[in-house]
Every structure is written in C-alpha cells, then in structure tokens.
Amino acid sequence: MPPTVSAPRPYRKAGLRAALLPLLCAVAVVSATAAPAAGAGSGAPDSRRQDRTVVRTEQGLVRGAPHGSYTTFDGIPYAAPPTGALRWRAPVPATAWQGVRDATRPAERCVQMPPPGASGVTGSEDCLYLNVTVPAAEPAGRKRPVLVWMHGGAFLGGSGGDYSAERLAVQGDAVVVTVSYRLGIFGYFGHSGLGAAPPFGLADQQAALRWVQANAARFGGDPRGVTLFGESAGALGICAHLTSPTAAGLFQRAVLQSGSCLTSFPRGALAPGTPAYEPFASQADVQTAGAEAARQLGCTEGGGDEVLKCLRGQSTDRLATAQLMQSFNRPAFGNGLLPVAPAQALASGRFHRLPVMLGTNHDEMRMFVGLSLAAFPIRTEDDYRARLTEAFGAAAPAVEARYPAAHHPSPASAWAAVLTDRSFTCTTLAAGRAIAGHAPGLPLYGYEFNDPHAPVLAGLPANPDLPYGSAHGFEMPFLFNPFPTERPLNESQRALSDRMVGYWTNFARTGNPNTTGAPLWPALRASSPDAAPVQSLAPEPGGIRSVDAYSAHQCSFWDRLSR
Questions:
Q1: 478: DSSP letter
Q2: How distant, in Å, are the alpha carbons of 95, 103, 158, 177, 548 from that of 76?
Q3: Which of 327, 365, 397, 412 gives 420 a disulfide partner, CB atoms 3.0 to 4.6 angstroms apart?
Q4: What local confidence, expressed as pLDDT, does residue 454 receive?
Q5: Residue 134, strand partner residues
Q6: Distance CA 556, CA 502 (A)
Q7: Please, are residues 122 and 112 in contact by the beta-carbon 8 Å criterion?
C-alpha cells in the first residue's frame, strides 16, 4: 500500500493555459517575517532546530507550511528579479536576506498571455521563484531523490505554482521542486545589441537547477540524484538541456512528457493558414524579429546600447501584447547555451549520457483540434481533405489513403489521428531511436498514456463529435493531485495513478522505472523500430503492458514520408 497523503491544501489556481496551451499559441499565431538571523549554515540540517518547517537555504532561512504528511516551501527566489537593467540578461543569484522569509504561498506568475477574453497584463516580471514539496517524515537513512518540474504552456503561459506535488513527494518519498521561468518576449527576445545571448527562459531553468544543486541537501534531497521532468514546452526545454553544454552536471535523469527534440507541426495543423512549427529558432531569426519589435516600439535611435536602453525602459504593459509575446516563444540556438538546434545535436550524438524516459498520450491532438473546431470546423470529408492538402501538399492523397475518414468516427477525429501520429508519437519514438543509436547501453524507456476515459481538464469545451480520450496534458492529474478536472479519478484510475507515481519516482531514484510488484517496463532499443516496445499506461485490468506503438501509429509510413 502506498503511504497515505494528508488531505490536500486547496488547489492553487492554475489558469487554463498551464495545462491546455502547451503549443497552441505557438502555432496558431504563430515578505519576510522578522526573526533573529541565524549564523551561516552548511547543507546539512541543523540538529539544534526542531521546527522542520524552517530550512536554511544559501540565501537565508525560509519558513514553509505544514500539511500533515508533507511540507511545502513556496515562493523561494532562485535568482534576482529580471527587471530594470536585468531585463534580457542572464539570471543572477538572488540577494541574501536577514531573518526568516515567509515561504507559505507561491509567488506571482511570470508575465504571460492572458486567458481568452481577459484584458491587461497577467503576472509580473519579478517571477524567478520555485516551490519545494517534501515529506514530513525524516528520510529513511539516505537522501531522497529530487524531481524538478518544468511546466508547459508554449513558452507563453503557466507557472510552477500551478502544480500540487504532494502525491509524488509522499508516495514516492521524494523532494519535488516546481519552477517558474520567463515567458514570451521576456524570456525569448533577441536583438543584435544582445549578441549571442542565451534564451533567457532556458537560462532561468538552468539557474533553478544550480539552486537545486546548492540547496537540495538542506531539504533532505540528493543533489546527485536530480531528475528533470516536464510536459510539452517543459519537455522541449528538457530536450534543450540534454543538448546544452552549460547544463552538464545539473541533472542526472530526464523525463520528457509529450515533447521531444524532434517535435514539429506541419502547415495548418491547428488552423488553416498557420505556418509549419519548429520549437527552436536560429539566433539570426530571433534577432530579426527583435529588430522589428524595436521598430514597432519606437526604439530605433542610436546604436545597439541606446536601442536596448530604450527597450528596457518600456513598460511591462507595452511589451506584453499578444503580438509581441507570440513573436518570441521559440528558444534560439546559435549561442553558448544552445550551440546548435537540439534536433541536429541529437542526430549527431551531442547530448548528455543519462537515463531518459519519454512518451506521449494516445490522443494528443484531440485537445488542440477540439479547441479549434468552433472557429474552424471539420464537418465533411472535403473539409478534412482540404486540411490534408494544406499540410502535406502532393503527399495528401497518400495520407488520406492511410487515414480514410470513413475509418474514424468523424473527419475531425481522422485529422486528430493524423496529427497525433505525425507530430507526437512518431517523432518521439524517432528521438528515442536517435538516443539509443548513439548510446546503446543508456537506460531508455518509452511510454504511451492511454486512458480513453481520462477526466477532462477543467475548462475544455464539450465536443460530441470528438471525445478527448487521452489528449494532450491528460496524464497530469495522474501525477499531480489535486488537479482541475471535470471529475475526480475513479477507483481504477487511482490505481493507475499509484502505478505511474511509482514508476516516475523509482526512475528518479534509480534510473529505472520498474518497481517490485508492478508490470515489467522494458527498455527501448535501437535495433528495430517496430521491436521497440513502449509501456502502455491504461487503467483497465491488464492495461499496463508493453505495446508496439510504432506500428499502431503508422510510424513506418511517416518515416518514409519524411525522407
């Protein structure tokens, strides 16, 4: 039996996009409490102190909130506020403080795209904070594994404070850290005056990982056992760190959920007229976009330093427009953090050798397509055929022959199946093969989340013609709980959740997800694509088993088409 988790604290309002907007925007538009200061401490816990809700970090003492079986430490700064002269600069360490800092509430979210229908700026530029969840019990003789979560949201939305990590912490006997990082124009702006600056949002993530290295032991965690995990844009960021020379030694394992170094979208994937999408952009392209943004903002006089001074003088409101935010949500390569595009780095074997777990959901694109149907319906086979033609050009008939609308419940579901296979499942399996091909002995595990009756994430519209099934993001309530869904998990889904938490945290502990009493999870191999099983994660009896996702998702067809 897994450990019992105390009654959860009220769910931290997530905002719909943290769970629902991982890539949609990208392709559719493209206080401190007074107390005596203690002396300098080491990374080891202070044996004189009985109050386990107070921990000394490198910058000072923090007081967390007890919740019975676990304790949370929220809103801890891992870097200085990137405001004023620090806007569009690499993160610098947070300033030390005196006394005990209150760490009972998450900090404000980073400036981001407002929810649909909302007006004004959402969030703050002073947002480089993280949250730590730890079991209340003393560690059982050894340091706990540390899981560091990077949220999704298309590099435009979301927050580390959106995720309640008590199940992972208590059941998995782990330290869990959730991170906020700069988004949109604040995180991914480029300009010739900045030179080959790193993608600031990814630099923030690495600064958070350096904070973890310095402070994990203070919370009972093992700084030599850090697992970086994330979903969608969070997974894309992890892909970048796997190929980033400046990330060496900052984490020892990686879990990529619904995003890989090879993720991409064809033309018109989410709506007619939208361009093809690649998640990373060249430094030159980002700098060109930055020059245009400077022109729009009236910052063109003088040299680069004067332009940057003008841009740094702009208000948050003037920068956080939909157009400007969406113009800067692709991390740049061609800099010290990302010398080359992650896909190219992976293909040439330039990545950190460490255990990797990666996977997708069975019906990824049903969420994206479902959100777009009101504005761009796909009612008939002609509608479906038009979308195929825009996406695949001369290859459209071959795609239609492989995915005839008549073989699916609706033309919209056929379109969602095409995009799921082409853009998520098969690219993720190809990324796995690339890793295995260059590092054949590396621990590597693949999965497919496949609960056709998974609870629908709160706020999604009903689509009778397109059930969501196991859509994008629908695995997260099985790892983070509570989570905003239309209904709680039922008994069989809670059992699946227990298994998934066990798999994820055992992988964090050992580099292998397998646990005693759980169905065997085989490793991925590079020898033959269709002989590389992934673990199907489904709630029905026998639902957790090895499956041939390569064949089930027509990956041989997509491999041939991509050549």
A1: G
A2: 12, 6, 17, 10, 43
A3: 365
A4: 96
A5: 71
A6: 32
A7: yes
Angle, alpha carbons 138-506-142 (nearest 5°): 30
Which residue of the set 159, 164, 180, 232 is catalytic? 232
d(CA 356, CA 224): 16
Q: Are 486 and 461 in contact (CB under 8 A)?
A: no
| pLDDT, average across residues 223-235 | 97
> Which structure tokens are listed for 441?
């002995």
Type of residue at 542: G
CB within 8 A of 410, min separation 6: which ones?
A: 378, 465, 466
Beta-carbon contacts of residue 393 (< 8 Å; ≥ 6 apart) = none
User: How do beta strands 100-102 and 70-77 pair?
Assistant: unpaired
pLDDT for res 531: 61
**Tell me, what amino acid is at 344?**
Q
Alpha-helical (H) ranges within 216-249 are: 233-242
Q: Is residue 459 classed exposed, middle or buried when 0-12, 13-18 and 19+ CB atoms within 10 A define those classes?
A: middle
CA–CA–CA angle 446, 449, 455 (5° rounding): 160
391 three-class SS: helix
The separation between CA 23 and the C-alpha centre of its own chain, rounded to angstroms, equals 11
The SS3 call for residue 485 is strand
Which value, to the nearest 10 degrees, does the dihedral of the CA atoms of residues 472, 262, 276, 192 take? Answer: 110
Q: What percent of the chain is modeled with pLDDT above 90?
A: 81
Q: For 329-449, where are the E strands, in sequence order? A: 332-333, 356-361, 444-449
Instruction: Locate 439 and state its tokens.
Output: 């590092």
The residues near 153 (Cβ < 8 Å, ≥ 6 apart) are 17, 18, 21, 22, 112, 183, 232, 233
Single-letter residue type at 529: P
| Angstrom distance (rounded) from CA 116 to CA 124 | 19
pLDDT tens readout for residues 47-103:
334 468 999 999 999 999 999 999 999 999 999 999 999 999 999 999 999 999 999
Q: Which residue has the tokens 């001369």?
A: 394
Q: What does the pLDDT look like over 316-371, one tens digit per residue?
A: 999 999 999 999 999 999 999 999 999 999 999 999 999 999 999 999 999 999 99
Judged on CB neighbours under 10 Å (0-12, 13-18, 19+), 307 is buried
Taking the C-alpha atoms of residue 348 and residue 535, their distance in angstroms, rounded to an integer, is: 27
Query: DSSP 3-state assignment of 355?
Result: coil
**CB of 186 closer than 8 Å to CB of 121:** no
Short-list 84, 169, 99, 161, CA closest to 129 = 161
pLDDT tens-digit series, residues 516-542 = 999 999 999 876 656 678 999 999 788
Q: How many CB atoms lie within 10 A of CB 497?
A: 22
DSSP code of residue 393: G
**Catalytic residue check, 232:** yes
Per the rule left: phi > 0, alpha: psi between -120 and 50, beta: everything else, 473 is: left
Task: Give the Cα separation of 493 and 538 in Å (integer).
Answer: 8
Phi, psi of 179, rounded to the nearest 5 degrees: -120, 140
Q: How far is CA 491 from the centre of its chain?
A: 27
- Taken as a whole, the chain contains a residue count of 563
